[in-house]
């Protein structure tokens, strides 16, 4: 009962902050959706980085070109590319993002408790917002730089 309340509250707080793309990304929490994204993955069942192993390790494909192996973690949103057939997706994920909440949890979705599910979704939403805030901040900083340059130019003109 309490968990349901927490979930509802969580949705109420975060949903308005996520845009359509970000909400779409939250679908990748589910193994079957991640697996579907690997429809044109270049590795086969004799390789270590099969679509199944990639999806189990939390990754979904974000490649737009043939033979591009760019993937993203649904949870920490880390992007990795340049996969080779004998790369172990779970180990690679752990090596690059040891603090990923999904890697730390170390279980597949069938075994998650509701609480763990909420924690992961929360971590993911926070990460999405973090990325957006960072890019907003960068935009503001560059606008500020431009304004300062303009002001300096105007000041110099006035002095002449
Ligand atoms: Zn991750």
What does this 3D model show about the protein?
- The chain has a single domain (3-159), classed as Inhibitor Of Apoptosis Protein (2mihbC-IAP-1), Chain A, CATH 1.10.1170.10.
- Helices cover 56% and strands 5% of the residues.
- It has seven helices and three strands.
- Helix 1 (2-14) runs parallel beside helix 7 (114-159).
- The longest helix is centred in the C-terminal third of the chain and has 46 residues, at 114-159.
- It is extended and about 75 Å long.
- The chain binds zinc ion.
- Zinc ion (ZN) binds at residues 58, 73, 75-76, 78, 93, 97, 100, 102-103.
Q: Indicate the structural class.
A: mainly alpha
CATH architecture: Orthogonal Bundle
Question: Could you give me the name of the CATH homologous superfamily?
Answer: Inhibitor Of Apoptosis Protein (2mihbC-IAP-1), Chain A
Low-confidence stretches: none
Number of domains in the coordinates? Answer: 1
- Radius of gyration over alpha carbons? 21 Å
Strand proportion, as a percent range, falls in 5-15%
Order of helices and strands: HHHHEEEHHH
Total helices: the number is 7
In CATH terms, what is the fold-level topology? Inhibitor Of Apoptosis Protein (2mihbC-IAP-1), Chain A
Strands of the widest sheet, in order across it, are: 1-2-3
Helical content class: 55-70%
> What is the average of the pLDDT values?
87
Largest sheet: 3 strands, antiparallel
- From the spread of the alpha carbons, the general shape counts as extended
Question: What's the CATH class label?
Answer: Mainly Alpha
Number of strands: 3
N→C terminal distance: 73 Å
Bound molecules: zinc ion
């Amino acid at each position: 009962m309490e968990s349901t309340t927490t979930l509802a509250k969580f949705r109420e707080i975060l949903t308005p902050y996520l845009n359509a793309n970000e909400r779409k990304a939250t679908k990748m929490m589910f193994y079957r959706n991640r697996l579907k994204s690997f429809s044109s993955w270049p590795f086969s069942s004799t390789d270590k980085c099969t679509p199944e192993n990639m999806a189990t390790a939390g990754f979904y494909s974000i490649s737009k070109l043939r033979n591009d192996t760019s993937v993203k973690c649904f949870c920490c949103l880390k992007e990795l590319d340049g996969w080779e057939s004998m790369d172990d997706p779970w180990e690679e994920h752990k090596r690059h993002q040891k603090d990923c909440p999904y890697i730390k949890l170390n279980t597949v979705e069938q075994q998650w408790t509701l609480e763990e599910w909420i924690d992961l979704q929360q971590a993911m939403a926070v990460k999405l917002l973090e990325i957006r805030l960072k890019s907003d901040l960068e935009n503001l900083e560059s606008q500020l730089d431009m304004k300062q340059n303009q002001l300096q130019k105007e000041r110099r003109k006035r002095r002449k």
